[in-house]
Specification:
Oligomer: single chain
Distance between the termini: 92 Å
Helix content: 25-40%
Radius of gyration: 48 Å
CATH superfamily of the largest domain: Efflux pump adaptor protein, beta barrel domain
Number of helices: 5
Length: 366
């Protein structure tokens, strides 16, 4: 009996302890924990009636955004003489593609054009003095032979007229034929001399001129195509990204990306001087009516993760409302929102570091 009373007391004690623990746990869990402080203070709207928009930093361009450089020819990259972040001048080589076949083609066509030009000069330089002298000498010899044959014939003719038995008729006819042949040779030599003096036929000259011009233009085209095997800087600026290495095969569609397995990456992303950058802001079409007139627009940019405010200079509105593109710069991605692009400018490095492609918060007011 005493043993049963002890077990009952133990159960009641354990139950009481469980209830007490539950009450204590409920009290502890019901206590409100103080909120964690934010990693950084969110950007505050500096304008009474300002509107918010996402922005992406771009290089400062007169039109459009960054310059993506693609080759106009296909081939294997043999040298990349620049690196990301390097400042370059207009015309500096950025990527060199193997051009040995095209160079040989250009040199062959240039050699053919030079040969055609020499042939044209030869035609235009006629008559050649040496050829003219030979023709003149041949005419002199033909004239002398004709005179000699005529003299022989005249002598025989006088003898025959004086005495028909002094010269046979056959001998006289032979002398006359010899004179006629010699005279014909003289006429031929004279016409040959006239032909030499006349120089090249105009049709031959025109045909050779056309051949030379055709080969010249072909060689110029081949040389121009050869220049395409060197990708050059379109203006003074900076290389923001170089997406190829020596040995990569490239085409006008771009370079192969090992990670995305796509072939449309530009060989080089080129921008202007990093001292001045642009911010492309996409304003929601619902907020467009609240946008101030161009002459009154003011804006401030906030670098994410900081409270630093950078004033922006209004550049232009691109007056074409289009579907919003992902600010990750993947131009194929679209969302169900139409936006108006507004471009601002700022001087980099004044208060905070900013880089092309960086996402920022922008408030637009007036």
């Amino acid at each position: 009996m005493a043993l049963q009373l002890s077990g009952t007391k133990l159960l009641f004690a354990l139950a009481a302890m469980g209830v007490t623990a539950g009450i204590v746990g409920a009290a502890v869990s019901s206590r409100r924990q103080p909120p964690q402080p934010p990693v950084f203070e969110p950007a505050a709207n500096p304008y009474p009636d300002g509107i918010y928009a996402n922005g992406i930093v771009e290089s400062d361009q007169a039109h459009g955004s960054n310059v993506n450089l693609y080759p106009e020819v296909s081939g294997t990259v043999v040298e990349v003489p620049v690196h990301a972040g390097q400042a370059v001048k207009r015309g500096d080589p950025l990527v060199l593609i193997d051009d040995r076949v095209q160079r040989a083609t250009a040199e062959q066509l240039e050699a053919q054009a030079r040969a055609a030009k020499v042939a044209l000069d030869e035609l235009q330089a006629q008559p050649r003095p040496e050829t003219l002298q030979v023709s003149q000498a041949q005419l002199g010899a033909a004239e002398a032979a004709a005179r000699q044959a005529r003299d022989s014939y005249d002598k025989l003719q006088h003898a025959y007229d004086a005495d028909a038995h002094a010269v046979s008729r056959d001998t006289l006819d032979t002398a006359r034929n010899a004179w006629l042949v010699a005279d014909a040779n003289r006429v031929t030599a004279q016409r040959s001399l006239d032909l030499v003096r006349a120089g090249a036929w105009v049709y031959d000259v025109n045909n050779q001129q056309a051949t030379y011009q055709s080969l010249l233009k072909a060689s110029l085209g081949a040389r121009t195509l050869l220049s395409k095997y060197t990708l050059r800087a379109p203006a003074d600026g900076i290389v923001m990204a170089a997406n190829v290495n020596d040995g990569n095969y490239v085409s006008p569609q771009g370079a192969y990306n090992t990670y995305t397995q796509a072939t449309n990456d530009p060989l080089v992303v080129f921008g202007t001087s990093p001292r001045t950058l642009d911010v492309r802001v996409y304003v929601d079409e619902i907020l467009i009516p609240r946008l101030a007139a161009a002459s009154d627009i003011k804006a401030a940019m906030f670098i994410r993760g900081t409270t630093t405010s950078i004033p922006l200079e209004f550049v232009r509105i691109e007056p074409y409302v289009s579907p919003k593109i992902s600010l990750s710069d993947e131009r194929q991605e679209r969302v169900d929102l139409r936006v108006l692009p507004v471009i601002f400018r700022f001087k980099a490095g004044e208060k905070a570091s900013a880089y092309v492609g960086q996402l920022v918060d922008v408030y637009i007011g007036k």
